[in-house]
């Protein structure tokens, strides 16, 4: 193979030396001397563009070099207070003095009462309006993606169901308003609502 590849005597000798030593074969073997020429560094080429050459032998860093870096340093543990110690002392004093935890029960009861008062009952009509709007937006997104044909019938059926429920709620509200208005006006029951 060496004769066919037209290698010089120096190159053949260099390759045979590498094989005898058990080393890996060199990627480049310079034709005339054992001295490798210094690579010419172009002024404009950044280091990022040139691929790095990997040697066959792994280069392991010694333990001292690894430990000298920041990889083995740990952050110091700094404990922080997770609860208010003064409140805990007061609570313990109350338990020892009265036999119960009075302060905690009052706080919990007031929190539960305020939470119940703050939650308003949701208006079903507004929920239905939002649901219809969400379905319209979903259908528009599916049509933009080319899937409108697949979902159109399902979404339109759901929208019609929501609209029907909204009509029923609207009729109930209008009847309630009519009853309230007729009760407030004296003699209002005599008039015909169809007039």
UniProtKB/TrEMBL annotation:
Organism: Atlantisia rogersi (Inaccessible Island rail)
Region (Disordered): 174-195
Top-level lineage group: Eukaryota
Record InterPro entries: UPF0193
Transmembrane segments: none
Identification of the protein by name: EVG1 protein
Pfam families: UPF0193
């Amino acid at each position: 193979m060496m004769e066919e590849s037209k290698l010089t005597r120096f190159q053949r000798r260099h390759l045979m030396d590498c094989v005898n030593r058990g080393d890996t074969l060199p990627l480049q073997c310079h034709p005339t001397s054992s001295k490798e020429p210094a690579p010419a560094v172009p002024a404009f080429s950044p280091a990022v563009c040139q691929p790095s050459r990997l040697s066959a032998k792994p280069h392991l860093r010694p333990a001292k070099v690894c430990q000298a870096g920041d990889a083995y340093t740990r952050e110091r543990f700094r404990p922080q207070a997770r609860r208010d110690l003064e409140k805990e002392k007061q609570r313990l004093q109350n338990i020892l003095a009265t036999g119960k935890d009075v302060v905690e029960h009052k706080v919990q009861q007031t929190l539960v009462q305020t939470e119940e008062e703050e939650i308003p009952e949701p208006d079903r009509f507004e929920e239905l309006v939002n649901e219809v709007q969400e379905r319209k937006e979903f259908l528009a997104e599916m049509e933009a993606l080319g899937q409108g044909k697949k979902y159109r019938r399902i979404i339109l059926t759901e929208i019609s169901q929501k609209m029907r429920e909204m009509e029923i709620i609207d009729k109930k509200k209008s009847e309630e308003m009519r009853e309230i208005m007729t009760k407030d006006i004296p003699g209002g029951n005599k008039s015909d609502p169809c007039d």
